[in-house]
Amino acid sequence: MASLRRANPSQLLLYRWDPIFDSRRPLSDQHDTPFVDVMNHANTSSDFITCFMQAFDGDDSCHSVTDTVVEFCRGADLQSLQHDAQATTEPIALLDGSGGLTAWGLSEALKKLKKAGNGHIYLVQGRIYNGKPDDTPTRQPTKRTGEYIATLNPWAVLALAQNASNHQAGAIAEFIFHHLQFDPRINAKILRDGLPVFALEFHFPYFALRKHRLPQRDGRRGSNGDPLRHYQDITFLRTMGPKLDNSETEYVYEAKMSCLVSGISRYSWRGYLFNDLYFEIDEDSECVAGFHEDQEDLGPRVDPLAAGKRPIYPLPGDPREYFLIIFEVRLRKVVKECQQRNDYIARAGRMTSHKDDSRKARSNIERQRSQLREELQDWMRQTIELLRRYIGVLNQYSEEWKAFRDTGCNYFMPTDDSRQSTRLCMSLAVIEQQVIEIGRLLVKFNHTKDSLCEDMPREVSQTKQFSSYRHYNSPNTAQPTNGPRK
User: Which tens digits make up the pLDDT trace of 318-339?
Assistant: First the structure.
């Protein structure tokens, strides 16, 4: 892929970081009021999630976005958030280095943040201060919260929607909707409907290859009633048929990581990270319990949004820097998972080719040889279908990065601070290298698919030849003659 290009002047005017975000802007009660309170004052007859989603989807006549999230949250409501067993017992979230929180616990913790100091909570060098900026012990403290949610469920959506500020409800509603899809998305924009708000967002779907005795099914439901994320048994790649031994089964699971960094200034912003982990059974995964145990150690607290790759403090002073840090860490995860699948498919292909040649060498009967070829054709068809699925998603990554590079990158450069500009450009360059690596893997997947597509007609032709040969030599088939025998 091409390297980062210098933005043209017209793009810099249309897509640029607004200097207003570099100044302090205190929120009025109107903008910082929790969205649920705004809805209650409006006396709307719509259910809560419908009303919340219309903060983003309100101008559309179809409301398909709203319907998607409403269906996902079916069976969950604010009244039962405090009493449902799953909402009150399953740790799913971390909030600024806190312990593992249930959906109900997350809702209560977010309410406390709203109430503290009339909605102002300042984090300075890892310590929490309530009140106004001039009450804090150091100059220019940052109002920043980071929310990490493992395997977003309907109860977590309710907790987020209930406590979303009125000025951020639209950005959060849009973010939740896009996370429920399975498409890559990279976006940076400024929402100017009312109080200007920046929204830096990415969604990274990927396929995770894991070995399990039994499949780990996603208990969440999408809009059609099916599981939100799916899985596939790919053992056929190495066995060319049903698995006959007692070894673990290879499954590929759909998963997604989504991040949103949004706020009204560099001094007041919030980061969100949704991470699908429904399929993970390894204790070393990014589960909430694992991060909670790490925080109880004496070492420095790690940032779950950055997969524990960096301490949670000190924080970058600029939300754009923080967004690019999370972007780079999470994209590396996508590349790693993609590389693992490519290596597995390559090994499985070599094993299948060797196994097919070996079985053919031991088979002297044409019927058996033809059966083996039919099995190989079936293996090729399934493998090609699998590769096309992977290739489709990787192609979307390339398209999203190209669109972001043409416009979204302009929000990250230039700045008046030369050192900050250097850091931002270096982060973008590192991300570009990861995107290039995705491009290389895309070429490998395409090459494997094309090779199989070329081999398939040849295998079919040879199978038909064997079939004709068997028919011709069958004892029930009349043999042609050249006239009466003498």
Answer: 899 999 999 999 999 999 999 9
Buried b vs exposed e over 159-172: b needs ≥16 C-beta within 10 Å? bbbbbbbbbbbbbb
In angstroms, rounded to a whole number, what is the distance separating the alpha carbons of residues 362 and 369? 9
CA pseudo-torsion sign 117, 122, 127, 129: negative
Which DSSP category does 311 fall into?
B
The bridge status of strand 121-124 relative to strand 268-275 is: unpaired
Spatial CB neighbours of 153, under 8 Å, sequence gap ≥ 6: 86, 92, 103, 220
Contact 260, 200 (CB under 8 A): yes
Q: Percent helix, strand and coil across the chain, each rounded to 5?
A: 50, 15, 30
Which pTM value belongs to this model? Answer: 0.85
Which residue is listed with tokens 């559309």? 60
Paired strand residues for 203: 185, 258
**Integer CA distances (angstroms), 406 to 4, 298, 370, 421, 445, in order:** 9, 45, 53, 18, 26
Q: Which helix (H) or strand (E) holds 377?
A: helix 366-406
**Residue 180 to residue 218: CA distance in whole angstroms:** 13
In the beta sheet, which residues pair with residue 302? 311
The token pair at 71 is 């269906």
Q: How far is CA 332 from CA 210, 255, 466, in A?
A: 18, 15, 48
Q: Give the phi and the psi of residue 357 in degrees, each rounded to 5.
A: -65, -40
State whether residue 437 is helix, strand or coil.
Answer: helix
Q: Are 286 and 275 in contact (CB under 8 A)?
A: yes
398-437 tens-digit pLDDT: 999 999 999 999 999 777 888 888 999 999 999 999 999 9
CB-based contact 447:347 (threshold 8 Å): no
Strands 268-275 and 249-265: antiparallel
CB contact at 8 A, 69 and 148: no
Q: HSE (CB half, 13 Å, CA atoms) of 214? A: 2
- Residue 394: CB partners within 8 Å, gap ≥ 6? 338, 438, 441, 442, 445
Calpha distance 257→199 (Å, rounded): 17
Taken as a whole, the chain contains a residue count of 486
Q: 198-202, 349-353, 457-461 — which one is most confidently predicted on average? A: 198-202
